[in-house]
Automatic annotation (TrEMBL):
Name of the protein in question: Membrane lipoprotein
Keywords: Lipoprotein, Membrane, Transmembrane, Transmembrane helix
Species annotation: Cupriavidus taiwanensis (strain DSM 17343 / BCRC 17206 / CCUG 44338 / CIP 107171 / LMG 19424 / R1)
Positions of the Potassium channel domain: 67-132
Entries under InterPro entries matching the protein: K_chnl_dom
Organism placement in taxonomy: Bacteria, Pseudomonadati, Pseudomonadota, Betaproteobacteria, Burkholderiales
Source taxon at top rank: Bacteria
Keyword Methyltransferase recorded: no
Coiled coil: none
Transmembrane portions of the chain: 6-27, 47-75, 114-133
Length: 149
């Protein structure tokens, strides 16, 4: 169990840092885009902005799944990347299919990845929610309505 934690927790930390990078990139992109469009955004620009935020956060989650899959391969749990990615995706998204299980020696890494994944999907959702709320505020302001902070 301690060996699983000693290997899994640093991978979780790498994933947390990676997600922080993707969130920072999303926020910078949003801030630059909004600053450049201070006169207002068209519907197409709003859709583009939200799409870029969603795609960047999704890419961040996919990269983290790949990191876990590579770890599983390095530990000898899977012979091919496709199976390792599938298993990692099932863990990360907390699906828990159970059709592929790891050996008892490394089985605790699955729940660690699931904890990592649910946290990262929560962070991704909050970033997307913040972007959607900004678009709503922008549209309400254009309509001349008071917007609460």
């Amino acid at each position: 169990m301690l060996r699983n934690l000693a290997i899994g927790l640093p991978v979780m930390l790498v994933c947390l840092l990676l997600q922080a990078v993707f969130v920072a990139v999303c926020l910078r992109y949003y801030a630059r885009f909004k600053h450049a469009r201070h006169g207002g955004m068209s519907l197409g620009q709003e859709i583009l902005l939200l799409s870029v935020v969603m795609v960047l956060t999704l890419i961040g989650n996919f990269v983290q799944m790949a990191i876990w899959a590579i770890l599983f391969m390095l530990l000898g749990e899977f012979a091919d990347l496709a199976t390792a990615l599938y298993h990692s995706g099932v863990n990360f998204a907390t699906l828990g299919y159970g059709d592929i299980v790891m050996s008892p020696a490394w089985r605790l890494l699955g729940p660690l990845e699931a904890a990592n994944g649910i946290l990262m999907f929560g962070v991704s959702s909050s970033v997307m929610t913040a972007a959607v709320l900004e678009v709503i505020k922008h549209n309400l302001a254009r309509l001349g309505e008071d917007v609460e902070p």
